[in-house]
Amino acid sequence: RRTSQGRVQMTSPANDDEWVDVSKGEESAAFDTYIDDRTRLSPVYAAGDLRYVLRVPKGAIVNEAKRVAKALHGCNACIHRAGIYVRDLGPSGPVFLHNLTCGIAAPCAEVTKLRELAEDLAEQACQSCQQHELVVVTDATYAPVREGKCAATGEEYGHWTVHPAACSTSEAATRYSKLARYYGQMDVRLAKLTVPEALASVNIMLEEQPHLERPEHYAACLRWVKTLQRHAVEQCTTGSGAFELMSLADKAKLRVLAILHGRVEGATHLDFHQSDNIVDFLTLPSRDALRAEMDSRSDPRFYMVSQLNRKLASAGVTSRHLIGLTWDGKFTDDLDIHVKTPSGNKIYYGNKSADGCTLDFDANVTQGEANPCENVSCKPGTFEVSVDNYTRRTRGAVPFQVVCRQEGMPDVVYDGTWPANRAKGRLLLVCRHTFTEAREEPGGLAMSAGAAGRAKALAGEWSAKIGEPTAVVATTDDLAGACGATVYRCGRATEPAQVGRVFMSMAASTSNKTAPAADPVRRKKAFLSESVKRHPTTVSELVAHVQAHPATQLAVRARDHAPGYMVSLATKCAGVRKTDLPAPCHFHDKHALPVKPVRATVGNARLDRSWLPCMSPNGYVRVSAVVDVAGSCPFLALEGAALPTCGEAFPLASGFYPTDLSADYHAHRERWAFYHSQLKPRVPADAKEGAVTLVGAFLTGDKAIVYMDGVQLTLKT
Question: Which H or E run contains 199?
């Protein structure tokens, strides 16, 4: 190892203290001067207050760099540094030995060779699409020139290093280190949010935001999205603002900017997670649909119960009976659920299992979480549910919800609030809830004492304003002239046998490719890109195509879709529900009640002959109409589809969702939800000739397979 005095120490396993003095020549002096030079610092990337380099993957060049470093003077530290620093890139190329590009002479041939290897590696990296590692540059990223001392003389050893032109602020480096796991995970989201169409769509969201029921719910997230879109255009020099078209360096920069901006709680980027909703909103069909969906998702009952659902899925909880506690992440208090079993034993964080019931997960134990929730898996019986605030971290009252869920029945949600001045340990009784055996017949249903009291107190208002609701399967006539709903009729089959020919037309089109043309002048084949341009790629484009070409023949394969239907609900007085549109009923899973369709979700339920008694042998069925309803997923009404008449695979319900009730009728949510499972929809007896019964399938997945005029299309929803 070369010391600051020009000596070279040679070490060996036999004698670590063996060293040899050499007189300090011109080469030694030049090397010392070179490694100490700080007049020409290495440029590094900058995004906000963060400074960083991009470290390319290892390769054969790295091994060559180590061999060159070893040949110079065998210093292990220099060999190690060369193998790492040669991979680091800045905006001007490799940062290692950068001063050679600024007129500084190399002290020896090995240094020149190392710089050439770094440039070769940078060129290879530019031609590769492989993502580079981001290394935050602080004052401790690169080792100092002087490191280690000669045991015999006490002189410091000198090594090459990188002298960065700037370093990150401590605040930016700390924030990035907490959120580093998001680097690379945001790519799909960034790509969707930075296309030109997304910029225009987000502007529409901002225009509609003041008209929402809860206008502040999306305010922070939309600000974050707009900031990213602005940075993509102004601070990234490639791609014209579109993430997918950017260079590797600009993609890295936008990722960093996304991490450095927005709301953060601990190691969770709140705006990134909420922007999943913004991405869904990008493809809504109208401003009416946008407002309806934004209001629906901002409803506390939606997002608080949804965070419980996500946690249940991630924890693998499959209980048929459960009691969940959930509250808004802005309250970092450690709320705890306490459940007393029918035998009197208590389940809570200090006793996680009793009588076959288990506390599945706890929340906010040591710090606040973005989506806090807790859950107890239960069994049939009557349970007493209380809540405690074990650790107070915020001031004021803390609202929460207790969700009691039984398979095959609608959720029962109890709203509660932990008072501002209530002391820790003074348990707050929320409810007493009774679970029955899953899928028990209506005669075995039970009601808690509290629910019974509320039902009696509200019976008069129910009778005067709601009466006895009716539920009838909707038809296309029910949507005629309705605000927020549009029906697009498709070409009809003239005979039943024609349904099966949708599939066979694909085989025929393939066979005809080898048949001689009747016309002696053969038509030029179209390029694939030309054919694709003529076909829809999204459901929205399909709807536009059907609207422009009403004779279009559409078909689906039954096993590709889950069954669903739409129900027209009627009450004694108008205005009970927020909308007069039919209620959607979608079977996400078999043996479970239908629910509202939710985008990007696919369950295990599939259409079968109980829904399609006249389905063709090959499993294909014609689409009679495409229905677009604001706030819901696209719906395909299927020819010959009807509600099943028997069997437990698909328990019918009528779409009495508590979240649909107007604010004035919110107190009736329990009785309203009861109708969902107990009142079965009836088939319309007086449907007009030509009206299409709305029984078929909602398109809830990310993609949908349909057959348009015999051609299979995979559409983005």
Answer: helix 196-208
